[in-house]
């Protein structure tokens, strides 16, 4: 493909995407494909001969799009959102277009520096304490990781390293391996699977402590666990607090957990993968009261800030904790000796290579402005409240727990089996997509406002479908 064909290929691809969004309401949110369908449709071997780009787009339309679950459909209400905006797509395109890898400053100075700039912008907009920001006097700073899972693991590995370093400094006779074997980490039983997995990947026992009746991990529970484990010779090392759990969007009280962690020199990481984006609106910052006690904080800009996957924004109070843990030198990576203020981001993450992810954050900031992003969040939350009102207006349903941000959980009063059947039937019809969770032992359906395209009329459509299916199920029950 030469540059002229690239122009045509690129413009045609943009046209396909623009049409995709314009006509997205004509598609069911869930695809009608059988398992193995695409595998059967594709040739067994890679093409031997070069092909025409027009055939690539034809196959994309005819073979690939039919097998897509439409996350940007206005009827997609499952999981949590994944962000998309035209500005962000262009940011990604520009990043791919220049084809760089930015592991050191010299590998692409603008890649490092735009990340510093945009992470300062976003950190300030979220109202994070100054110590987390690269522009503060201290050793804090932000980095874009690929996912919240990576951020949790990076925090865990750095926490282990910091604890072993501290204890062996105080008592040089200690064997670092012995210390390592005694380390233990904590989170709540409501944590995302990725938090538990970080324990597996990081070779440390991760205790899932019992949350209270509202799904929050309380200070007294954490303190009791520390005391028990210390009495048994273990060393508490890492705590992951959840701001906006995946199941029900519960918020752990950082103001209770933080002082306990600080007292025991335990690293506190805040997983605010979904809910953190809402802190761009000052009225939601109450949920992060106590964040000043944390060592690291992560939110997925790629969930709710109109930025495409992947862009997980993580801040740490002390960049040296990461550098101490992950700095491995090679002569070919020797850089102008970079300082903390212009970080060698390769020491702040797991891989060596890194994408120019800050470009899409920057294109979104530049085109929406902070006000545009705030009004997106506010509009989405008001749409969730609109849906909650519809559910409340039908006395066959119960909303439980209280809606939080863009999440509304509900169930049929008539029991778990009927609620489960309602979700199964709706999923089978492919017009509305939601997933389940459990709350206080009951089966609930999670409805999340996800697509930036969703309007009140779209919600009326989803609600109509939910009511119609409920009518059918209730009728079946009577007969
Ligand atoms: N933490 C929470 C609370 C989440 O809701 C999710 C995903 O939805 C994750 C972590 C994992 O995020 P990622 O896929 O970016 O690793």
UniProtKB/TrEMBL annotation:
CDD domains: DOPA_deC_like. Its cofactor is pyridoxal 5'-phosphate. SUPFAM superfamilies: PLP-dependent transferases. One of its GO terms (biological process) is catecholamine metabolic process. The keyword Lyase applies. One of its GO terms (molecular function) is aromatic-L-amino-acid decarboxylase activity. The keyword Nucleus does not apply. One of its GO terms (cellular component) is cytoplasm. The modification N6-(pyridoxal phosphate)lysine is found at residue 303. InterPro entries: Aromatic_deC (IPR010977), PyrdxlP-dep_de-COase (IPR002129), PyrdxlP-dep_Trfase (IPR015424), PyrdxlP-dep_Trfase_major (IPR015421), PyrdxlP-dep_Trfase_small (IPR015422), Pyridoxal-P_BS (IPR021115). Keywords: Lyase, Pyridoxal phosphate. Belongs to the group II decarboxylase family. This is Dopa decarboxylase.
